[in-house]
Amino acid sequence: MKIVLLGAPGxxxxxxxxxxxxxxxxxxxxxxxxxxxxIKNGTxxxxxxxxxxxxxxxxPNEVVVKxxxxxxxxxxxxxxxxxxxxxxxVAQAEALEGICPVDLAIDIAVGEEDxxxxxxxxxxxxxxxxxxxxxTTPSVKxxxxxxxxxxxxxxxxxxTVRNRLKVYNEQTAPLIDYYRQKGKLEVVNGxxxxxxxxxxxxxxxxxxSRK
Length: 211
Ligand code: AMP
Known about the structure:
By secondary structure, the chain is α/β, with parallel strands linked by helices. The chain has one domain: 3-Layer(aba) Sandwich (Rossmann fold), CATH 3.40.50. It has 9 helices and 8 strands. The chain has helices at 13-24, 31-41, 44-55, 61-72, 90-99, 112-120, 158-172, 174-181, 194-206, and strands at residues 2-6, 28-30, 81-84, 104-109, 122-125, 131-133, 150-151, 185-189. The protein has a 5-stranded parallel β-sheet with strand order 2-3-1-4-8, with helices on both faces. Strands 6-5-7 form a 3-stranded antiparallel β-sheet. Helix 2 packs across helix 3, helix 4 (61-72) runs parallel beside helix 5 and helix 6 packs across helix 7 (158-172). It binds adenosine monophosphate (AMP). Adenosine monophosphate (AMP) is lined by residues 9, 31-32, 35, 52-53, 56-59, 64, 85-88, 92, 155, 164.
């Protein structure tokens, strides 16, 4: 199954993609993670992407599309994949159709106020990328999954968060209609417990109409 997870920054795409990857045995392909790793390793892509990530702007389409095209060619993607954070523009979605058309897009819907609260209070594991929130896990000092150090992402400050949400509304939200018109869209309410959202996603995948 080739799946796109849609949703604003902070909607829980990364968390749901990780769980789904574990249960379905197909890889999570997160463009944000790819850029953060490239920045950390000081690669040419990382050097180019850093300024965009720092201000919450989108990395140019041609850079992202090339990276995704190469990643999807890898052997582990042959049996399907979960795209998390890509596509983010209609142009990227059209490019993806040319690379490898997806079966399904799942939009995780969360209201803006909740998104701001989640993002500005988010802590991520430096090692495995798992997300936590200061309010719900105040006593957690290290990652529950791997023991890694928890840090705030540099782009999770209020000013950058506002810009990321603006960019989402202007450039990424139109993808909801894009996939709806293709008959490939499912929407799940993302303002619930992680397990409940995951349960609904699994039900969608198991239903006869989505094979
Ligand atoms: P994320 O981890 O998905 O929130 O992505 C973090 C940042 O990486 C975004 O704010 C963008 O700067 C960049 N990025 C990730 N995916 C894309 C994409 N598909 N197109 C352009 N920029 C992206």
